[in-house]
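**Polypeptide and fold**
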Amino acid sequence: MAYDIDMIKKVYSQITDRVDKAREVVGKPLTLSEKILYSHLWDAASNKAFKRGEDYVNFSPDRIACQDATAQMALLQFMQAGKKNVEVPTTVHCDHLIQAKQGAVKDLKRANETSNEVFDFLGSVSNKYGIGFWKPGAGIIHQVVLENYAFPGGMMIGTDSHTVNAGGLGMVAVGVGGADAVDVMAGMPWELKFPKLIGVKLTGELNGWTASKDVILKVAGILTVKGGTGAIVEYFGEGAKNLSCTGKGTICNMGAEVGATTSTFGYDDSMERFLRATNRDDVADAANGVREYLTGDDEVYANPEQYFDEVIEINLSELKPHLNGPFTPDLATPISEMNVKAKENDWPINVDWGLIGSCTNSSYEDLTRAASIAKQAVDKKIKPKSDLGINPGSEQIRFTAQRDGLLQIFEDLDATIFTNACGPCIGQWDRSDRKGEEKNTIVHSFNRNFSKRADGNPNTHAFVGSPEMVAAIAISGRLDFDPTRDKLMNEDGEEVMLEEPQGIELPTRGFAVEDAGYVEPRKDGSGVVINVAEDSERLQLLTPFEPWDGKNLMGAKLLIKADGKCTTDHISMAGPWLRYRGHLDNISNNCLIGAINAYNMKANFVKSQITGDYAGVPDTQREYKAKGIPTVVVGDHNYGEGSSREHAAMEPRHLGVFVVLVKSFARIHETNLKKQGMLGVTFDNESDYDLIKEDDTFNFIDLESFAPGKPITIEVVHADGSKDTIKANHTYNENQIEWYKEGSALNLIKKTNA
């Protein structure tokens, strides 16, 4: 029996009429994405055909998922909303606050000791407000969602950018900031600009060393990290049907790395197999009853150029295995070309670690394909040259894999089996084999490989590949190893080759688990008391942000002009800072400490216009705040790329930054800034970025007439008294301007519920 089956059946009972009506309104056949979007309109009676990439639309998601790092701030905000229970099925998953170090048992025990205050808080809030709670060790949020909650044709949001993983089961699943989630928890609509549509036609069938991961590695190389911004990527074709459900999930998961709103696949036999294998026959039966409504119309897939804004075609039979990186997930290199490319770029050839797992690649099938390579190493007496670490995706995966002997195969190679959690993928890795900032290489099956992400070392060159390719490269110890043609020397001095990986889509004996780690909330949580100690270092109750005074913003100083890529990891680092995700003031001490100052090319070293001295960004900004001086952050393209963490918006807001002025924003971060009552604007002329000087003062001279579609005029006053007047554009609509006026979206919700 599935969770929330009545809700799922209600969605299916409405989908036929709503999709049929939408088809009439739009006047043409519909993609799967459009079917899900139009069937989840907040105003079900709407008769409007929305313009892609232009119209802001209110939606009604079916469910919400939160991971423990972002859930803290989301739930702290929800506690202020004045509600007795969440209005939409919601879950919290404890997967981020578990550091990988010694292995699953010891690491989980240590996490429960060091983060018990946070886990207790999340459990109590979940109990009080009717939220399903998944304990530490239960698994990685997105794998748990795929196994338990995702369903074809549904819409969900989650406080993690890789919520998009659920597209592998035919959902429109979108990563959002906590403030967006709070809106929906409180029974409010969720607003999204109606996405553009990118169609990816898959033909052929994967073979040999090529895996589902290679599909998205190839797509990332084509679209780049911002090529999918504002769009849903919809996969279709016979090749799509030939992929497993979890393979589809892998592809959708890493779609976040091309900036896509989400990615999805139409309902097919592989999804039905997965639903039934995970004890959800009731969902599969219900989905089969509306099967044609859970995929795109035939005419769309027959003539995709007429219905998508962009179409990409990939022949899976010809696709080659890839490694992407380092330092960016869109630098795609076929394995066969790595030997040349690595030498040209002076990438370290020796590989220190191979890491398999994360929300992207930790399914049963992933483990079997990697284990088939590991088993060959054992049988052929090949001693691995690199360390190997494994993160199973869920307790159900781990238990089943242990029962079937898969984990033992890895342990025979001296691999470390880490907790069913994110671990190194998000920087939760106590890496003892490296000290300082030594130049080195690791390979992993994760989704992101930004500088410092895995281990805090800016010189760790991280490359992304499939689990089986990671296993092969780790065994060889060389980045340029191509298992399709290269031989290895075994312990007997013999040259041997690794054979092609073999995987098992679903366990032949079925999944098994003793304790999945789920805690059902009380039916009546009114008596649950939530305690947050005033002297806590980990948790802090929130104080509402101040409303806008309605006046022009004058005399604002430049805090930092960020050079190049400035992701949410640069703005609000993870790793050891995760411990402060529930304490806004403490975590604000990492605000923009990873951003590179364009004037000296150093991180966390900016000039104070008060003293003329250079210091860290948070300290400098706290001094501005203490003196009541507003500040501006200037950035480059795709500012805020990466994780959905709203802390990257809340920290500058808390410290007194008023404006973020950039060439372009990543979607989630722009929304997060709006939600927190900040002014996020873009240069009308991108070259004006070059006009900004280190000692500049900014006057926003027509902010008093802030209105949708109306550019904002900024007077930039230089230290010598000269001035430049520039224009800045914005995407605020009427409702979002109300957020700005009230000081935040949450302030507006509280005012509405008062």
